[in-house]
Every structure is written in C-alpha cells, then in structure tokens.
Amino acid sequence: MQKTSKVKKIVWVNTRTHPDTLKTIYFHKMDMENGETISLWKQQDNSFKEWQEIVYTEEERNWKTIYKEYRPPFKQWGGGWMSDKQCAVICAAEMFNGKWFAETADKVLSRLTK
Q1: Which is it for the CA torsion 80, 81, 83, 87, positive or negative?
Q2: What gap in Å lies between CA 62 and CA 50, rounded to an integer?
Q3: Whose CA is closest to 72, among 25, 2, 6?
Q4: DSSP run (H or E) holding 110
Q5: Mind giving me the DSSP string for 58-99?
C-alpha cells in the first residue's frame, strides 16, 4: 500500500557495507507525521530531512512489515528504461517531427499515466 507522510523525527541512522559491492548503505529509522515509525535505506547519509515529505510503500512479508521509498514506474522504449515524461517527449518527436511538439507530448503523457 502506498502512503505519503512527512518525517517528524530521524531517530537514528545506521550503516552497513554491502558484501558484494563494498558500498556503504545507510538505514534511516524515522518517526512519521502519520504516527508510523519506518526504516528506509539509501546510499547517502543525508538523504532524508525532518519535515520532508516522503512517498513510501508498505508490504507484509514473513510476518514483518517492509517499507520502501516509492519511485515512479519506468517504461521500456528502444532498449532502455525511461520515465513516462521521457516516453511522451520521444513519442511526440517521432509522431510530428517537432510540429505541435509540446501539445502532443502533453497528450501522450496523459494517456501513459491513465
């Protein structure tokens, strides 16, 4: 389930090193304005700030609640992955060769996000 709330307080930040990539991962435990306490991970220490609005998902897995930061979906186009806006711009450019470009991109984007 997708939720939106502001960070009320950052309780703690814990670090771990990924065993394969040897990159540092930062786990942020945060009290949210909606009353939940969640933990999210990032590859940067200062990724979250107090009173920042975050969109996240909640999933039950093995009697445990898993929280993940929500990222908008990407579409595949021409061998690569891109956002809806990028797809709309490319589609508009290919359809009209730059003529009425902005209007076409807006129409394509509205159809992609329905």
Answers
A1: positive
A2: 30
A3: 2
A4: helix 101-112
A5: EEEETTEEEEEE-----EEETTEEE-HHHHHHHHHHHHHTTT
The beta-carbon contacts of 44-48 under 8 Å, at least 24 apart in sequence, are 45/13, 45/15, 48/7, 48/10
Name which of 72, 43, 42 is nearest 57 in CA terms.
72
Give pTM, 2 decimals.
Answer: 0.58
Tally of residues, the chain: 114
Residue whose C-alpha is closest to residue 48's, from 60, 35, 38: 38
Give the start-to-end residue ranges of the domains of the chain: 2-69, 75-112
Query: Which amino acid does the sequence have at 114?
Result: K
pLDDT over 90 percentage in the chain: 25
* Nearest Cα residue to 55 out of 43, 35, 74, 40: 40
